[in-house]
Hints:
The complex is a heterodimer. Chain A has eight helices and eleven strands. By secondary structure, chain A is of the alpha/beta class. A five-stranded parallel β-sheet of chain A has the order 2-1-3-4-5, with helices on both faces. Chain B has nine helices and 14 strands. In chain B, helix 1 packs antiparallel against helix 3 and helix 4 packs antiparallel against helix 5. The longest helix of chain B is centred in the middle third of the chain and has 51 residues. About 3% of the residues of chain B have low confidence. The interface between A and B is medium-sized, with 18 and 24 residues.
Amino acid sequence: MRLLIVEDEPALRETLARQFRSAGFVVDLAADGVDGEFSGKEYPIDIAVVDLGLPGKSGLEAIRAWRKADKSFPVLILTARDSWQEKVAGLDAGADDYVTKPFRFEEVLARVQALLRRSGGWSQPMLKSGAIELDSRSQEVRVAGAAIELTAFEYRLLEYLMLHAGQVVSKSELTEKLYEQDFERDSNTIEVFIGRLRRKLDPDGNRQPIETLRGRGYRIARD
Amino acid sequence: MTLALLLLTAAGVAAWGLDSMYRDLGLRARQDVLDAQVIALIAAADIDDQGRLVPGNLAEPRLAAPGSGLYAEIVSSSGSWRSPSALGSGLNLAAVPAIGERRLEFARLADGSRVLGLSLGIRWELEDGGSRDFIIRAAESLEPWYAEVARVRAWLLTGSIVLGLMLLAGLGVALRIAMKPLDRLESQIADIEAGRRELLGFDWPRELAGVTGNLNALLTGDRKRLERYRTTLGNLAHSLKTPLAALRGLIECGHDDRESSLRQLDRMQEIVQHQLKRAVFGGTGAVMTDLAVQEPLEQLRVALAKVYSDKAPVITTAVAPGTAYPIDTGDFLELAGNLLDNACKYCKTEVAVRAMAWTSADWRRPGLLLDFEDDGRGIEPSERSRVLERGARADESVAGQGIGLSVAREIAAAYSGALEIGESRLGGARVSVRLPGR
């Protein structure tokens, strides 16, 4: 998942970035509204976390600009004061949820995951496709009721496919969304991880949960 | 001052109008007299042997007495006749009217007195069938009349001056009476500034009651805010003591217990957050303009529908048309936002908001009633007062419902209103806010 953080306070920005990276996100950073607006418009991000009190261009303006440019990724706003006026203004500008400062990272993460789930069309925290169940809160995966162990990258890969269940996801999209920008982009790596995921989800090879569409990408069926 | 000038002008204009009306009427009366004289002369006249037209006998005795002030003459090409009264008067009327025409003129006699003269041209039929033209003139001295006009004018002038002065005096007295409460207001405000008095008195005339009422509201609001700041500061200082002491203890003991230290920091952060929240809302008590509550409630409904889109509660808002209340927009959003947030948090599927005006005979402006209802588990009667009290002091506060409710309660209190928890007809909790009118 590719996440954009727009936050002017360097300490908070770096902390959030580190925490989100360790939670498996690919993180883009912007220190002000102008930068933020550009990143949101130009990069294929899945979700943005925006501080409303920014120097230069305000967070509100950046959100409005994204929405005007038909960018529909979910936006979580960080409001400095617990002020309903600010919250209402932010949500009205096109944000989808808010967290008030000070916050615990777990709360921000939970909100971000919920927003991602919702933008994928899932209303429950439990994502299901056939026998596969993925709990986005506990990050547990079960196949036919039995828990299976996935590495962090395998989990992120499966989560991305399941959040976009029913859609074809290309290899380049996966590279973009699951790797940091400067990472070497080798689509073979994705193929290798898809192969490992298939073996773990379907050791007997009779369910075929991940479909390959030659030249286009992968797809997980939606229930 | 302007009023006084206006009054004086009005008196002057009235006097001038009366004067010119009197003059017009007088002049017309003089004309009628002269006309009658001329007609009487014609009636009494006949041609004498010299071919002159001469009145046989003078019906008007004034024409016979010299210097009487009434004069007549009949002029023709063949000679003229003059009344005995005109003898030596130097009467010199010059108008030569055509036949049947009347002409008026002002003239002066030899002694300088002014007369008004009327000349009438006539054609006299002779017995031999011919005719001869005459001019019949009558004149009357204007001096007696002018004297009268002067007298009337003097009266008018004195009258209007007296009237004007009386009006001015009356105005002065009326102003003094009207200004008396203002003087009192001024001295009371000075007393408040000097700290000798807390609020303005209450026995004001109707015209001032609005202003003094608003001023009192402003003063009360200010005092409440000051008290709130003091309490907040006190609470803040007091409530930070405990975690500070704990932190100091941890450091002094040389414990490297990051988790405990962080917990204390979190606690302090929470306290600061809580107190900030309480201090930020205005509740300024200043005289505010009416806020139509429909729009902010709708904004909140849309915003919360977004935030709770997983749960997707059905939020219905019923606002009586035109419901408005003098409250700061931020305060209103904070009050309604916290309560609506709670309702969404605790509901199963349904949330209902109602807003309407609340009237009382004592108020010139209505109060506001807000109801927030949900179909959740509700709040037990025994819990209700505790839930409202929670968070009243920061060091007792817990994140969650307590803060939202207590913040809402404090905002309501800042507007002299109250919060009440009851049962909803939807099955869950009902939180009612009553903000009084003024």
